[in-house]
Amino acid sequence: MPKMKTKSGAKKRFVVRASGGIKRGSAFKRHILTKKTTKSKRQLRGVHTVHASDAKSVRAMLPNG
Fold first, then answer.
1. Taking the model in full, what pTM does it have?
2. Does the pLDDT at position 1 exceed 90?
3. Domain range enclosing 24
């Protein structure tokens, strides 16, 4: 039986925590920041958790995670 492969794009973007949650970064904060408000940019800082409705598909991409 061949090994299950990890999606290389997913392993760069997600980290599975010890508690079982999946850590992710924020979208919309890389460029074109001049037209975004200071409040919106501040709220995009830090790490976030993948929503429960998306967690199943992320786990399928990270079989060894």
1. 0.83
2. no
3. 8-61
